[in-house]
Inverse folding.
């Protein structure tokens, strides 16, 4: 099904025609030409069934005894095919706020996720004929897409540079929009934007996962500190040897490096006593 333009004319002109028919019917009745008056009134009544009003950013889908005749997208008063059925479809931009869905991320952790979907109808014929109740179709497909995307990524990670739900919300939203557009194209709906509105671990594991995050963060920070401490201790030994400030044997170098590592890596305000060996 593809949208097409319906046959219609200016509604104000149609109203003028109806008034003229009514006036001729009154004159004919006054001249005792009852049959002509009845015919004129019947024609006017038939034409009056084709009068319709289209609001801005709306579309009227014209159906004539089960046959799709086209759509009216222009706003105003129009006269179209008499005895036709007209279904109104809004073309305005709308929001759909999903419920908080409980799903498992790619690592199997239960999380709560919700999103807002910004969409509009671009093909009224598809919205009416290709799906049943397109608003409900948008809601169900949106929640399905949210669930599917949430299962493709971890909630968070400190060990790799992969995409996560918490750290890459923009990328996840774009992926969700692409997948949702594929699902809603059949209904003539265009997805304008998707955004995550809620993301959290489920209540039953929130405390444990918070401790895991803290431990992972501490481990990652410690790793950086150790790498920096090793580099600083190495530079200190190399500079002492290069400038001939001190001449240390291997044992004293080991002791000095050990003391430097302890002083740098310690997370408390210690005052270490560093043994650098004797001066020759």
């Amino acid at each position: 099904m593809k949208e097409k333009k319906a046959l219609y004319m200016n509604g104000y002109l149609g109203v003028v025609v109806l008034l003229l028919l009514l006036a001729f019917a009154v004159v004919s009745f006054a001249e005792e030409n009852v049959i002509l008056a009845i015919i004129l009134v019947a024609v006017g009544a038939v034409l009056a069934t084709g009068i319709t009003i289209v609001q801005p950013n709306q579309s009227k889908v014209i159906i004539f005894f089960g046959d799709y005749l086209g759509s009216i997208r222009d706003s105003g008063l129009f006269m179209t095919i008499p005895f036709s059925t007209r279904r109104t479809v809004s073309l305005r931009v709308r929001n759909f706020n999903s419920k908080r869905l409980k799903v498992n991320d790619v690592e199997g952790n239960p999380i709560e996720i919700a999103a807002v979907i910004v969409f509009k109808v671009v093909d009224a014929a598809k919205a009416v004929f290709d799906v049943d109740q397109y608003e409900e179709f948008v809601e169900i497909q949106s929640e399905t897409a949210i669930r599917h995307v949430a299962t493709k990524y971890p909630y968070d990670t400190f060990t790799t540079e992969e995409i996560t739900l918490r750290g890459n919300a923009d990328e996840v939203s774009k992926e969700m929009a692409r997948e949702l557009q594929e699902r809603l194209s059949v209904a003539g709906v265009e997805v304008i934007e998707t955004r995550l509105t809620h993301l959290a671990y489920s209540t039953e594991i929130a405390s444990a996962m918070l401790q895991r995050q803290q431990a992972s963060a501490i481990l990652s920070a410690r790793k950086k500190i150790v790498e920096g401490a090793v580099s600083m201790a190495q530079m200190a030994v190399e500079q002492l040897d290069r400038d001939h400030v001190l001449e240390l044997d291997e044992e004293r170098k080991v002791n000095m490096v050990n003391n430097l590592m302890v002083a740098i890596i310690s997370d408390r305000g210690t005052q270490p006593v560093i043994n650098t060996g004797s001066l020759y």
Remarks:
- Helices lie at 11-30, 34-48, 124-129, 134-150, 169-184, 203-243, 250-265.
- The longest helix spans residues 203-243.
